[in-house]
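ok posting inputs for the DQA job
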Amino acid sequence: MKVLIINGPNLNFLGIREPEIYGRQTYADLLAYINDYCAGQDIEAQFFQSNHEGAIIDAIQDAYGKMDGMIINPGAYSHTSIAILDALKAVGLPTVEVHLSDIAGREPFRRHSYISQACLSTISGLHFKGYVEALRLLQDTVNK
Ligand code: DQA
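and the output
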């Protein structure tokens, strides 16, 4: 299974940004954690991180016809981006939305995600484990 794992704005600052919310582990630690899971499975993970909405949309479109599924943590674009929602709907790949923090228990403006509408599921508040849960869900869906 080929999976594109997209991380949006400020996720490259993991370990530095608000460690009381996002923890002290870095973006490189996140990739190592995901790769560790993939190594024992039949999963080829490709990673993409950008702070730019258009670049994320380009990456989603680029996955069309190449990937079996996607995982996306859209960062703050979750709460604002109809364009990312439309891109996910356009390519139609099975996609799981992940948030490190529990967005339902934070500020009211984080409670709504536009992106959820185009996703199989939204996993929130499990920190790094959320990405592995998302991979498991994609495995169940794609290998069915
Ligand atoms: C986040 C939650 C978003 O509200 C926030 O803007 C982020 C990270 C998370 O992983 O918990 O940048 O997506």
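notes: The two ends are 12 Å apart (CA to CA). Residues 60 and 114 are 16 Å apart (CA to CA).
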